[in-house]
Amino acid sequence: MRILQACAELFPLLKTGGLADVAGALPPALRAAGADVRVLLPGFRPMLEGVTELTPVAELDPPAGLCPPESGARLLRGRLPACGTPAYLIDAPRFYLREGGPYADDAHRPYADNHLRFALLGWAAAALAHGLDPDWQPELVHAHDWHAALAPAYLNAAARDGKPPPSVFTVHNLAYQGVFPGSAFAALGLPDAQFDMHGVEFHGQLSFMKGGLYFADHITTVSPSYAREIQAPEQGCGLDGLLRDRAHALSGILNGVDETVWDPATDALIAARYEAGHLAGKRRCKTALLRELGLARTARAPLFCVVSRLTEQKGLHLVLQALPALRARGAQFALLGSGDPALEAGFADAAAADPDGIAVRLGYDESFAHRLIAGSDVILVPSRFEPCGLTQLYGLKYGTLPLVRRVGGLADTVADTRLETIDTDATGFVFDRFSADGLISAADRALALHARKADWKRVQQRAMQRPSGWGRAADEYLALYRQLLS
């Protein structure tokens, strides 16, 4: 089974969020299960520098409005060294070699030509499916998030003699849709008929996300609960009607954890390695973390942490509101993240006012994220909505019990701890109402459990032993691929 995965970022080469972790872990898991998988990526500088054995495959000849012939765009083939997966890169310097980030400049302004930069990704995926590489042709295209969402539209447009090769489109976050002015459609080289309510048109604008949802043969999300939630207005982001119409072709497949990267038994980035049956290393991780952060070393004080983008979606304003109550109850707090300037300032001010109990690092540091999760007791993920969430999965794996809101993938992965569940399925703490009071109530239960060391250890060990790898998800994707190909 020959599968092409098309996406805009991939760990460890380029990461702005959870999409990169999924894109880096799913292909090798599919290969381990017997699929012939290759990855298509934009030729951002980190990709060109990180993919090995690069050789030219073909000159690209997309529609002139999308990428003029004189641009010299070409397709390269190489290998991802971390997992050995073959990779294609779109070598288009005028589009991808820029001084800013992958989607916006250094001032955080989205590039004005993003509709062209990522339409080229979708076009190239379709071109590969129609034989662009004479040595390898995918039987199915799997496109990830809005950046690659036009791949199914281009497959549909280029279909010859009947049905195009099947496609799967995975929604990682419906809130980010790739919406552009309707006038941008003319440059893409797609049939005029596709700029329609039954196509890529969205209230007079061009929506990449809608194109993927409409033209893909099957839609997946990254958790079963999120697949249900986005069919309702609250989380459907204006596309719930289309998703309800396509409910027969919509399913949720829960993300996994890349255990070659996230496993406390083998993690070289943490102070001491440990596993469920031998937790002394976790205690050493906490001691080292408190020393690194300059927090008071109080053995009985639980350490709550956050590793997140600082946005309203992630519920970080609730954490900021709850901090005084957490500190009054004896808990400590540490955060790694960046985003909304007001949230950054609020957390920085809290840390400055209480350096013994609160530590904040603005920005992102992959190595420190490992140390922070390994050394903390509770990880907070109080999201307003959450397609899947990965940090709670890392928390489970590292015995850092997640405190989450009952929504999306958080509801699918964390079982609430109550008196009647301590001996059965409890793995963390869950609250329902999106409020600081709801978060504090769940934190009170976490603090009460932390004071009962035997019960805490029981829940902690169960969390760590929860199956978390990508093998199960890979099997579900392969079953879906087989169904579409049959």
UniProtKB/TrEMBL annotation:
Group of enzyme by EC: transferase
Pathways involved: Glycan biosynthesis; glycogen biosynthesis
Binding site residues for ADP-alpha-D-glucose: 15
Transferase recorded as keyword: yes
Pfam families xref list: Glyco_transf_5, Glycos_transf_1
Catalytic activity from the UniProt record: [(1->4)-alpha-D-glucosyl](n) + ADP-alpha-D-glucose = [(1->4)-alpha-D-glucosyl](n+1) + ADP + H(+)
GO molecular function: alpha-1,4-glucan glucosyltransferase (ADP-glucose donor) activity; alpha-1,4-glucan glucosyltransferase (UDP-glucose donor) activity
Xref: PANTHER family: ALPHA AMYLASE DOMAIN-CONTAINING PROTEIN, GRANULE-BOUND STARCH SYNTHASE 1, CHLOROPLASTIC/AMYLOPLASTIC
Function comment: Synthesizes alpha-1,4-glucan chains using ADP-glucose.
HAMAP family in UniProt: Glycogen_synth
Protein name: Glycogen synthase
